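To the wet lab folks,

You asked to see what we're planning to order before we commit. Fair enough. Below is the target structure as tokens, and below that is the sequence we designed to fit it. If anything looks off to you, flag it before the synthesis order goes out.
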């Protein structure tokens, strides 16, 4: 929930073990007006890619234990999330993404 955020947002990707036989993992940033939840004011707004598209460099099996930062300022909606797509075979992956931004108020 980025309601109280202003300016650029930094996404922090932390990858532990990338397992299996050569997985390719794409992690993109998406946004939504209402977290894809309908309410009295509006219908559900599905998450969609930022425009222009904003994503981390592709993760491969050799990327065990990496930390990557991605700063973006093209967000226009309240909610943001990271979406992961994997191709190839993998047994287990440990990946997390967090977001930090300046607060409008202190």
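Sequence we intend to order:
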């Amino acid at each position: 929930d980025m309601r109280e955020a202003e300016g650029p947002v930094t996404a922090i990707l932390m990858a532990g073990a990338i397992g299996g036989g050569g997985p390719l993992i794409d992690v993109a940033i998406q946004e939504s007006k209402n977290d894809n939840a309908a309410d009295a004011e509006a219908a559900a707004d599905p998450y969609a890619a930022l425009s222009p598209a904003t994503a981390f460099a592709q993760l491969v099996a050799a990327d065990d234990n990496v930390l990557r930062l991605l700063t973006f300022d093209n967000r226009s909606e309240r909610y943001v999330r990271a979406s992961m797509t994997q191709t190839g075979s993998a047994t287990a992956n440990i990946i997390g993404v967090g977001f930090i931004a300046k607060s409008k108020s202190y």
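Structural context that might help your review: The chain has no helices and six strands. The CA atoms of residues 4 and 106 lie 10 Å apart.

Thanks,
Computational group
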